Amino acid sequence: MLCKTVILLGCAMLAILSCSKDTSTFVNTVPIYQDLKVTFDKTTRHSTALANFRANNANGLRLALNGSSDLLFNGNHPQIFSSTNAYSYTYEADSLQNMQFTFKKSNEQVFNNTISLKDTTNIDLPPTLTNVSIRQNTTIPFTGKPLQFGEQVTVYLVQHNTQSGLATESTPGVTSLVFPASLLSNFTVGSADLYIERTGLPMSLSETDGTAGGQKVTSVVVAKRVIINE
């Protein structure tokens, strides 16, 4: 019998099922929830795809797929698997490209879902934004459509490989957010890179595993050089 192993990560328990009749039955019969995301970095022109899987539904046990189960990103295998980050699979592309996720279960069922650039809502930073205060909170405006219900905008800065804390905003209709000076406690006056990320409303999948369902999410990242001043 072909050994099929599925590693399940619960809230506080790690269960390993391997080389048993129960394992193969579980893989073949339990619907698997697919959580898919692509981040399009329009400054570096990179695409980063991320996939997570759960048993039965969005609240089920996290899955690491082994044995004959497989996952492809535009026909390529994942470059990174993280057992510490929600059992996530990552693939990075050196261009802005639509991403097709091909998930094959151990029973040879195959599910194809695509996340496209056209699924995103654009965001950018205006030319007038040139400074961020290290002493006072700074309002960070952004261009593009006002924030929609279910979306989120996140801002952070990077200076000499040090990343600040995250400022987030999810209020529908806004076109700016406040970046607290307290998030720059480890920064100094000088230049830094400011990043803004717009995460879209979750969308339904085209192909799901039975009743398990799933979602696909896009995010757009842009960055610019700013001056941190008093």
Automatic annotation (TrEMBL):
Q: Which keywords does the record carry?
A: Signal
Q: Where is the signal peptide?
A: 1-20
Classify the source by domain of life: Bacteria
Q: What is this protein called?
A: DUF4397 domain-containing protein
